[in-house]
Amino acid sequence: MNAFDVLAERGFVEQVTDEKDVRDLLGRETVTCYIGFDPTAASLHIGSLVPIMALAHMQRLGHRPIVLIGGGTALIGDPSGKSEMRQILSLEKVEENASALKDQLSQYLDFREDRALMLNNAAWLTALNYIEFLRDIGRHFSVNRMLAAESYRMRLEKGLNFIEFNYMLLQAYDFYYLRKHHGCTLQMGGNDQWGNIVAGIDLTRRLEGKTVYGVTFPLLTTSQGHKMGKTERGTVWLDGGLTPPYEYFQYWMNTEDADVHRFLCLFTFLPLEEIGEARKLKDSRLNMAKAVLAFEATKITHGQNEAERAWQASAEAFGLNPVDQGLFPSSTIPRVSGGSTVAAIPSVTVSFRRFDGGIPAFELFFEAGLCASKGEARRLLDQGGGYINGRAVARFDEKITLKEAEGSGEIRLRKGKKRFVRVRIET
Asked: Which residue has the higher pLDDT, 227 or 195?
C-alpha cells in the first residue's frame, strides 16, 4: 500500500507540501524520511507517539526512517508552540539524554543493517563556523518571512531572543544536510513545525536545486480538549522505569469513549477494517475495545510479556470479562488465566509499626499516592470514592489496622473505579 494513503487514512496527516507529488514519490521508490526528537529529557512521553508511530508505519511499508536526535538544536531550544524560552541544557546533559532516547526508540524501529538510521545533529551543527554559516546559509533567509511564521509570531509578544531566532536556520540546515549526505527527501513532524519544514525545503532548493517534501501531523488532544499524556499523576512516559507498564496500560484503558476509534488508528497496527468496528460499540463491548487498545499500545512500547502481565493484573483487579476475540482477531490479547499477576499493580511499602493504633484512612490514601493531598483524600472518602480490599471506606478517619492485611500481607486500596495501589506491610 502507498504509505501516504495509510498515514492519511489513520489520521496522521494534517498538512502536506504537495499531496500528489508526495503520494507519487512514496508509490514510486523507497524514500528516506526523517523526524527530529528533542533530547531535553531522558525519556520520550505519549505526546511523542504520533511521530514515532508514523516512522514505524513508514518502515513497515518499505521506506527508511531517520530518527534525528536534536543534540545540537537542543542547545538552543525550539520556540515552536512555547510561550516562554526553554531551559538551555549543558552539552553533557543533552548527550546523556540523547543516548537514552536511542535505546528507547529501538523498541519501535529496526535499526539493523541500516533499515533505519539514528543520527545526532550535534555531529554537524556543533562543527559549523559561525561566520561561514551566516554567509552561506543565513543569506537565504528573509527576516520578514521568519517573523511571519507562527512559531515566532506567538513569541513576539513575550519576547523572542536571538538564540531562538536562529532555530529555524539550523533545522532547515538539518534537512539540507540529510538530503545531501543521506538522500532524505521527506521531513515529517508536528503541525507546529510547518514553518521550519518549509524553510528546509526552500533552503535545499536554493543550495542544491533539489526538490524535497514535508508532511505534518495534527497536534493531538483528547475529545475533551485535554493534552495527550497528561494525568493527575503527571506525564505518562515511555520509559517503564518512570511510568510502569501497568500504569501505562491503565492510561489507555481510561481513554474517553469518543477517542477509542481514533486512538486505535493512531497507536496500534491493527487493520483498519477491524478498527472500524469500534465505531459501532457501546457499553461493555466498547470497554473491550479499550482493553485491546491498552494491550496493543503497551505491547508496542513495553513488549508482549509486559502487556500480558498488565492485562492479567487489570483483569484480576477490575473483574474484567474476557475480550471477545471476534471483534479484533488480529490482536494477540490473551485469555484471562487463573494465575495471579497482581505483582504488576503499583505498590508502596509501609512499616507494620505505622499501624500501631491504626492509620486514618485518608492518611493511608495520601501516603499511597492515590491522592495529591490529605485534603483531597478526605473529600474522596467523604464522597464514597475510596475502597479498602473491595469495601467502601465508611469514614475518612476510619482507622486501618493490620487485620486488613491478614492472609496476604498487603492491603488493596482503590480510588474510584480505576486506580489501584497495593500497600505491602514491611515486617
From this structure: 195
Q: Could you tell me whether strands 347-351 and 234-235 are parallel, antiparallel, or unpaired per DSSP bridges?
A: unpaired
Q: What is the pLDDT of residues 290-343, one digit of tens each?
A: 989 999 999 999 999 999 988 888 877 666 666 666 778 888 887 765 555 555
Paired residues of 419 in beta bridges: 415
Q: Which three cell numbers stand for residue 164?
A: 531562538
* Domain range annotation of the chain: 3-217, 230-338, 346-426
C-alpha distances in Å from residue 268, one per residue of 158, 199, 209, 300: 39, 32, 38, 8
Q: Does domain 3-217 have CATH number 3.40.50.620?
A: yes
Q: What's the predicted TM-score (pTM) here?
A: 0.79
The cell for 286 is 466498547
Residues 6+ apart with CB under 8 A from 260: 278, 281, 286, 289, 290, 293
CA–CA gap between residue 47 and residue 222 (Å, rounded): 11
**Domain 346-426: homologous superfamily in CATH:** RNA-binding S4 domain (3.10.290.10)
Q: Helix (H, G, I), strand (E, B), or coil: what is residue 235?
A: strand
Comparing CA positions, the residue from 50, 90, 87 lying closest to residue 71 is 90
Considering the domain 230-338, what is its CATH architecture? Orthogonal Bundle (1.10)
Q: Which three cell numbers stand for residue 60?
A: 513497515
Burial class (CB in 10 A: 0-12, 13-18, 19+), 242: middle
What cell does 376 get? 483531597
* CA distance linking residue 136 with residue 122, whole number of Å: 19
pLDDT surpassing 60 at residue 31 = yes
The DSSP letter of residue 118 is: E
**Distant-in-sequence, close-in-space partners of 425: CB < 8 Å, separation ≥ 6:** 349, 350, 351, 352, 355, 402, 405, 409, 410, 411
Rounded CA separation 308/329 (Å): 16
